[in-house]
Structure formats: C-alpha cells, structure tokens
C-alpha cells in the first residue's frame, strides 16, 4: 500500500487528486495540508467527496510528512516544492510536483521565466513527467516535475511528427482552455460575468509554458525548436484543445501520416489517434485521463494541422501525476485512472 500526502489539497488539482486516488486500491491517503482549512475534514470542505475522504486537513509539517508518506504530491505555487525536495528525498519520500519547479532541464530557464531568486536544483535529480515520452526515466525517479496542461496537449500532439522528421521546427500553436486552468483562487477575469459568452487570448508570446514546450520539442527533434504560442480562455469549466500548424518537410498522404501516429502510440492506453476525418473535442475527454489526437493536411499550403484535446485537470495535471506515481511504484499504469469520459 502506497502512503500518499498532498500539499495544497484544497485547490482544483488537489481535489482532483483525491477524487482519483479515492478509487485507487493500492493507495492510502495519509496526509493533507491546507492553509485555509486547517483542522477541517476534507469531506466537509468538498461535499462531492462525502464518504470518500475523511482525512483531516493540517498545517504543513515536514516531519509528519516523512513519518507518514511514501510519496508526496505538491499542488502549491511555484517555488515551494523546491524548498522541501532535498529533505524528502534524503528521507526516502518521493515527490511529484504539479507546479513548475522541476520541469526544466536548465535551471536558468526556470529562473528567467518564473523570476525566482533561487540558485539551482542543488543535489535534487529530477525527471520531466510525461509518461509517453519519459517512462523509463520516471521508473527510477525520486522527483518528477509534472508537465503543464498546455504542454501536455502540445507535446503529445507533435511528438510523432517531430520524431518522424515530417515537419519543420517552426510551429504555430493555438490553444484554448477552460476556466479551471487558472486555479481556485478568485480572480476578476475568471468571474462568470467577465468570462461567460466570451473568448479571449492572454499572455500572448509570453506564457510561461513556452519554454517548457520548446524544451521538450527540441529534445524530440534533436535541434532547437521554436513555437509561436497563443493561449485563450474559453467559457467552459474543463478542457484544453490545442491546434498546431506545422510546415511539412516533404509531401505525405494523410493515410501515411495516420499510420505513423498510430504506430507511435500503439501501446499507449491514454492516447487515442482518431480516425481520418475525425477531430477531437474537449467534451470527448471530459473527466478522463485520455488525450485525443486528430490529423489533417492542407495540401494547398503544405501544412500539417494537428489537433489535440485533454481534460486540463486530469491528463493535464492530477491524472498524469497519478500515472507518474503508478510508474514510480511499479503499479499498473492505468490503476485508478480507467475513468470513462463524462458525456454530455
């Protein structure tokens, strides 16, 4: 039985972790922390989990975590997981960070984009936690940087094309996300009256997921790869739809392209390459850990169009974190994650 702790348990990703883990037979939730609800039972804060999680929320205490947990999920603002990672690792406790602290191969990139005053990762060895690409490294990892939601949709969508040397390394990405991607804390722009019946771009050309996307695409491509990335806020609760526009290096049929993608993901339970002419939607993956990928070729302009959909709180965050935990502890990768998407 894997003993689990969740730091920042009452944010959206923390709640989603508990929803998923409550259905995981090999896990026992032993420790939950919350800054705002200390002393309350989790089920009293979130009635949707009434009867599923009676654990009391506590103030964060590292010694208690070490004593009670085999693995800790950190669902906290960037900068905190880095402070505790070394002590946890030295005590044999594994860490899966849902923030950005351990996503970067080069700490200077993290320091620049997240404006931290920290110097480096110290003695902590981290792995980027996208299972379909880094499964072998994750198996032996003590610290995993769980990918961002946008990067998950983009990297999974582009990996076969880059590995197959089908596209040029200059890529345009248009992504749309539900409001839950902005987190649980109230913000003016996320209020119903502000975002309902509206769609708007934000952080154009400066979103913090850009360097993460470029890092992983460059690793796949074995050369420096740049992207133009524009995220949009859409008036829905969950979901991400990313559409990528890529210049083809060579003439290729949609049938051959589909075969390349199908072969690349043939052993991946959570990635579904849709039939030719079928396009993904956020509703088709709602509440699940699946990624759906659709393909099209614009012969007139020599452009590959890749469409990828995920649930930002599951495959884009908490579900992927549980998938990583399963790999790290030698548990069947889909354990606790065989949720059928919710429709309608």
UniProtKB/TrEMBL annotation:
Its EC number is 1.2.1.38. Keywords: Amino-acid biosynthesis, Arginine biosynthesis, Cytoplasm, NADP, Oxidoreductase. It is an enzyme of class 1 (oxidoreductase). Pfam families: Semialdhyde_dh (PF01118), Semialdhyde_dhC_1 (PF22698). It comes from the Bacteria. It catalyses: N-acetyl-L-glutamate 5-semialdehyde + phosphate + NADP(+) = N-acetyl-L-glutamyl 5-phosphate + NADPH + H(+). GO terms for molecular function: N-acetyl-gamma-glutamyl-phosphate reductase activity. It is found in: Cytoplasm. The active site is at 149. Signal peptide: none annotated. Residues 3-141 form the Semialdehyde dehydrogenase NAD-binding domain. Pathway: Amino-acid biosynthesis; L-arginine biosynthesis; N(2)-acetyl-L-ornithine from L-glutamate: step 3/4. InterPro entries: AGPR (IPR050085), AGPR_AS (IPR023013), AGPR_dimerisation_dom (IPR058924), AGPR_type-1 (IPR000706), NAD(P)-bd_dom_sf (IPR036291), Semialdehyde_DH_NAD-bd (IPR000534). Belongs to the NAGSA dehydrogenase family. Type 1 subfamily. Catalyzes the NADPH-dependent reduction of N-acetyl-5-glutamyl phosphate to yield N-acetyl-L-glutamate 5-semialdehyde. This is N-acetyl-gamma-glutamyl-phosphate reductase. It comes from Thermoanaerobacterium butyriciformans. The lineage of its organism: Bacteria, Bacillati, Bacillota, Clostridia, Thermoanaerobacterales.
């Amino acid at each position: 039985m894997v003993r689990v702790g969740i730091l920042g348990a009452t944010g959206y990703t923390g709640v989603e972790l508990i929803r998923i883990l409550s259905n995981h037979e090999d896990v026992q939730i032993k420790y939950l922390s919350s800054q705002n609800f200390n002393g309350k039972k989790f089920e009293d804060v979130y009635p949707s989990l009434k009867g599923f999680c009676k654990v009391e929320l506590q103030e964060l205490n590292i010694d208690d975590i070490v004593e009670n947990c085999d693995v800790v999920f950190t669902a906290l603002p960037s900068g905190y997981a880095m402070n505790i990672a070394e002590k946890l690792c030295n005590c044999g406790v594994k860490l899966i960070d849902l923030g950005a602290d351990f996503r970067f191969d080069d700490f200077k990139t993290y320091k620049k984009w997240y404006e931290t005053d920290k110097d480096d990762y110290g003695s902590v060895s981290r792995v980027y936690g996208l299972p379909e690409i880094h499964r072998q490294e994750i198996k032996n990892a003590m610290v995993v940087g769980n990918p961002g939601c946008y990067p998950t949709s983009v990297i999974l969508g582009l990996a076969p094309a880059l590995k197959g040397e089908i596209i040029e390394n200059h890529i345009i990405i248009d992504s749309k996300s539900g409001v839950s991607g902005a987190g649980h804390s109230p913000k003016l722009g996320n209020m119903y009256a502000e975002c309902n019946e509206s769609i708007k771009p934000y952080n154009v050309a400066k979103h913090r997921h850009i360097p993460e996307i470029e890092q992983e695409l460059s690793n796949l491509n074995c050369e420096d790869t740049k992207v133009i990335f524009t995220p949009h806020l859409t008036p829905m609760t969950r979901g991400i739809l990313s559409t990528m526009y890529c210049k083809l290096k060579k003439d290729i049929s949609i049938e051959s392209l589909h075969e390349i993608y199908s072969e690349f993901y043939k052993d991946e339970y959570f990635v579904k390459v849709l039939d030719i002419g079928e396009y993904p939607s956020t509703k088709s993956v709602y509440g699940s850990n699946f990624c759906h990928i659709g393909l099209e070729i614009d012969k007139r302009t020599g452009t590959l169009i890749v469409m990828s959909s995920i649930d930002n709180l599951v495959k884009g965050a908490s579900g992927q974190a549980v998938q990583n935990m399963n790999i790290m502890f030698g548990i069947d990768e889909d354990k606790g994650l065989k949720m059928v998407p919710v429709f309608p």
